[in-house]
Write a structure and sequence with these properties.
Among the domains are: 20-99, Carboxypeptidase-like, regulatory domain (Immunoglobulin-like); 304-344 and 424-505, no CATH class; 627-698 and 735-773, no CATH class. The protein is globular. It has twelve helices and 50 strands. It has a 22-stranded antiparallel beta barrel. It has a five-stranded mixed sheet with strand order 10-15-16-13-14. The protein has 922 residues and is mainly beta. 12% of the residues lie in helices and 44% in strands.
Length: 922
């Protein structure tokens, strides 16, 4: 240990005290000679670089590079400049000329290589560093909704889900979110939980969005699009940054009352001689979550006219346990008394993010990076139920070797669900712990529901002394005697016991799953003279563990391997006005046939700042680990994932009947027996009504999309961006129910086996819910248009409009995921970073029209999402002498109560004030 510490000490001294030659100088605005802060200075074709400080000064060790060499200097709102350095000892005085930021903006996500935003071959949106800082929403992630084509759904104060181009959901496994190149999904949920485990505002450098299919470059998760988040490089952004933010929400809510929320974040980065750098981040947000308190009666068994608070069979949207119901003879439909969500969910939410990164430049063109992210928090998630992701932990480790034209990256992602649970199941389990029979004796949980309904029926029928008959209210009061009331010790004890009981006997959600990923990319363009060429590949390994609560993994491992490789070639023609790019990717999951996903694009630059683009894109989505390997026996039915080896030796896919044909056969058999037929004749005469199921093992979903667009800059002040797309989809993943008899479904001659039909009548069968694909094809199309106008004196006015349309064609609606996207949505913004003496402001407005939301939370029945608008606003004051900025603002400042998904909470206003100190101790 002592030798190791001595080695590390000597190594650090070498880093700090190295005597590399330094290039230094200042960078100024050519118009008024003012210093330019945060300008990027990079040695051309190398990874070595730095940024200028608040006085425009910079110092860059060149690590044994002999002159002459070229520096590339760039900054937002200025034309980039290349400067040849002949004598590294001579200080440089560099001036940059102002230029609209739109001409300068560089993106990398569209082709995985740096390119000008105006010449991107596909639609791409970007939130740059200035937009992150000036964002009026509570966090930068909330502000992503203002990007053109972006859809957002809020399930919790700490959880917002994003999507593009339809098929939206509260947990989106069709959309890829990357954080510094790392897939930010949780291994068990198989989607990113918003920014719950992402980056703080003060470490965020930019966000880039590709709407639509991007599998040709990013693989199976990029079915609906890619959101690439990039944090700050510790070589370029050094010093101490501290941000303190406090606010209030639940304004005007009598049930809750105004409540405070708090957000504190810290970042420190330091570089030594431009060789070694590190950064550390810590961020903590806490507050009281939004309440889901929509008590609309959604009982599917009750006619709409009879629904409401007085309905004995009421099933309220955000009350759980009342979905357990029974039709009592002579009484009608009755449901159990449920518990409100606020008494089941942990609304004291928080998000803790810890991050550390080490960067070491081995040479001028080779950098090694290790990064560790730790996230822990509580959030509410709307799925088939409302889930409490309670103290959920996500950790990532990233190792990367990076050069100016390649990278090799490996990372591991692991989760621990800790105290997470299903609130609907929780209510049902609590309801089964206190019931007594008519003699006053406590019953076991498996008998509790039946005993409760017996008590209700007896009371209603007047059989209970002292209880008025023919009264639903009196019958319910009697049946509920002994009911655990929220807040009591008995209730809390039953609640805690169920939360920490996993599988079918409790409400707890258990997962210690993880996945490992390695990928690389190499740009051959410097070696190939006549065209651009890039190639890459990836490998992923899922290692799932739910201890038998979801998968059949108590005594065996559930693992999945998948790999992919791509190649991309580009060629410029017509004096560089036309660029053609072709990409082809091949992906293989061990359980499915391989998939080829091509992409072709053309960009024609008619003038310096006017480009037309067209592309053909493809996408695919592998079934999630749950889709493949769920193995959950819930009593009368077993939910079974569609991977072939998940049902090995069970013969379910091959030897079963369709559920509908079993129903038809049962009715016909009963009628025949009622008509006097013998048992054998009733079977023989009707067994041909049975149909052998023809269910295929699960496979990936597929998409093909065509897109055309235009992006142009007029008079250096007006940016216009328009795109239209048309997409077709097939092989959507769905569930189907089959019935498996004990005997073979067919005999030797291929006819329905008598013994198998007899199994149905004798009850010697088991039902399975299988994962498979639909043959149906559907299509969607959409148009997005955006404008940004740079007004005099630094004012900026922007707006965009998105139109989306879904065509079910001849498909069965039950075989297609819900589109869940408004037909129209629009955004407007107006702001100035320095309107008067370092005072700035930003105003953002979002509107979308009404639509029907379909989701498993409501049994795929429609729930109306009303049209709504949101207004976000911030005012800020910059204090250069104190290296700080004060911001006062609010999200949804008009306090509209907005529900973005049926069953999710209504979101109100958040008003906040923050102060940020930047570049301290630099």
């Amino acid at each position: 240990m002592q030798r190791t510490l001595l080695f590390l000490f000597l190594f650090a001294c070498h880093l700090v005290n190295g005597q590399d030659i330094k290039v230094s100088g200042t960078i100024q605005n050519a118009t008024n000679n003012s210093p330019i802060a945060n300008a990027s200075i990079v040695i051309k074709d190398k990874v070595t670089g730095t940024v200028s400080d608040a006085e425009g000064r910079f110092s860059l060790p060149v690590m044994k590079i002999k002159p002459p060499f070229i520096l590339v200097i760039s900054s937002v709102n200025f034309s980039p400049l290349e400067v040849t350095v002949d004598d590294a000892a001579m200080p440089l005085s560099i001036t940059l000329h102002p230029r609209p930021w739109m001409l300068n903006e560089v993106v990398t996500t569209a082709t995985r290589l740096p390119e000008n935003l105006l010449r991107s071959p596909v639609t791409i949106e970007k939130m740059n560093l200035r937009a992150v800082r000036e964002n009026p929403s509570l966090t930068f992630y909330d502000g992503l909704q203002s990007l053109k084509g972006m859809e957002a759904v809020t399930s919790s104060l700490t959880y917002k889900q994003v999507n593009t181009r339809g098929f939206n959901s509260t947990g989106n496994s069709r959309f890829l979110q990357l954080l510094d190149g790392v897939d930010n999904q949780t291994p068990g949920l198989n989607f990113a939980v918003g920014n719950q485990f992402g980056s703080s505002d003060i470490d965020m450098e930019s966000a880039e969005l590709i709407p639509g299919a991007a599998s040709a470059l990013y693989g199976p998760m990029a079915f609906n699009g890619v959101l690439s988040l990039r944090t700050k490089d510790p070589f370029q952004y050094q010093g101490l940054t501290v941000q303190a933010k406090t606010g209030i929400n639940h304004i005007g809510e009598e049930e809750v009352g105004t409540h405070g929320l708090y957000d504190l974040s810290l970042r420190y980065a330091k570089a030594f001689n431009n060789r070694f750098a590190f950064k550390v981040n810590a961020a903590y947000l806490s507050g009281l979550d939004w309440y889901a308190n929509d008590y609309t009666d959604i009982s599917a068994q009750t006619p709409p006219a009879n629904r409401g608070p007085s309905n004995p069979g009421r099933d309220a949207l955000n009350i759980y346990g009342d979905e357990v119901s029974r039709t009592l003879p002579g009484i009608g439909l009755v449901s159990r008394t449920g518990y409100e969500e606020k008494d089941l969910m942990n609304y004291d939410v928080y998000s803790l993010k810890l991050n550390g990164a080490l960067h070491y430049r081995i040479t001028n063109n080779l950098e090694a990076i290790y990064q560790y992210n730790f996230g822990k928090g509580t959030a509410s998630y709307t799925g088939s139920s409302r889930f409490d992701l309670n103290n959920f932990v996500l950790q990532t480790h990233r190792l990367e070797l990076r050069g100016s034209n390649f990278f090799l990256r490996s990372y591991a992602v692991s989760e621990n669900s800790h105290d997470s649970y299903n609130t609907r199941s929780l209510a049902q389990f609590i309801n089964r712990t206190w019931v007594k029979d008519l003699n006053g004796n406590a019953v076991t949980p498996d008998q509790a529901d039946a005993a409760w309904f017996n008590r209700y029926a007896a009371a209603y029928e007047g059989s209970v002394s002292g209880v008025a008959g023919q009264s639903h209210a009196a019958a319910r009061t009697f049946a509920d005697q002994g009911r655990f009331l929220p807040g009591t010790a008995a209730y809390e004890q039953a609640k805690d016991a169920s939360i920490h009981n996993y599988g079918l006997s409790g409400a707890g959600v258990f997962s210690n799953s993880k996945f490992y990923h390695t990928e690389g990319q190499y740009d051959f363009s410097r070696s190939v003279k006549y065209f651009e060429l890039m190639a890459g590949g990836s490998f992923r390994y899922y290692d799932m563990f739910t201890n038998g609560s979801l998968f059949d993994d108590k005594d065996k491992a559930v693992t999945i391997k998948e790999y992919g490789a791509f190649v991309q070639a580009g060629k410029k023609l017509l004096e560089d006005r036309l660029k053609l790019t072709a990409s082809l990717r091949y992906d293989k999951n061990e359980n499915f046939d391989g998939s080829f996903t091509p992409r072709f694009s053309a960009v024609y630059t008619a003038a310096k700042a006017h480009s037309f683009r067209a592309s053909y894109q493809t996408g695919f989505r592998n079934p999630t680990p749950v889709d493949q390997y769920i193995h959950l026996n819930v009593g009368p039915i077993t939910i079974l994932g569609g991977a072939p080896n998940n049902s090995k030796s069970m013969n379910v896919y091959e030897n079963s009947f369709t559920a509908s044909s079993v129903g038809a056969f049962g009715q016909a058999f009963g009628a025949a027996m009622g008509g006097g037929a013998t048992f054998p004749d009733a079977i023989n005469n009707n067994k041909d009504l049975l149909k052998q199921s023809d269910v295929a093992y699960i496979k990936p979903e597929k998409q093909k999309a065509f897109e055309v667009g235009y992006k142009g800059l007029f008079e250096n002040t007006l940016l216009v961006d328009i795109n239209f797309y048309y997409a077709t989809y097939r092989d959507f993943i769905l569930n189907t129910v089959v019935i498996q008899p004990e005997h073979s479904v067919t005999g030797g001659d291929g006819s329905i086996n008598f013994d198998a039909a007899a199994d149905i009548i004798n009850g010697d069968v088991h039902a399975y819910q299988l994962y498979t694909n639909a043959a149906d094809k559907v299509s969607s199309k959409g148009l997005s248009a955006g404008v940004t106008y740079m007004m005099p004196k630094g004012y900026t006015l922007g707006g965009n409009l998105t139109w989306s349309s879904f065509d079910l064609r001849d498909a069965n609606p039950n075989n297609v995921p819900a589109f869940n996207t408004p037909k129209y949505s629009t955004n407007m913004s107006f702001g100035n970073t320095n309107a008067y003496r370092n005072f700035g402001f930003n105003l953002a407005w979002h509107w979308q029209d009404a639509f029907d939301w379909y989701g498993t939370f409501n049994g795929m029945r429609p729930g109306r999402i009303s049209s709504y608008s949101l207004v976000d606003l911030q005012f800020n004051k910059k204090l250069p002498s104190l290296k700080s900025m004060i911001k006062v603002g609010g999200s949804n400042i008009l306090n509209n109560k907005v529900s973005q998904a049926y069953g999710s909470p209504s979101i109100g206003a958040i008003y906040y004030v923050s102060i940020t100190f930047d570049e301290l101790l630099k």
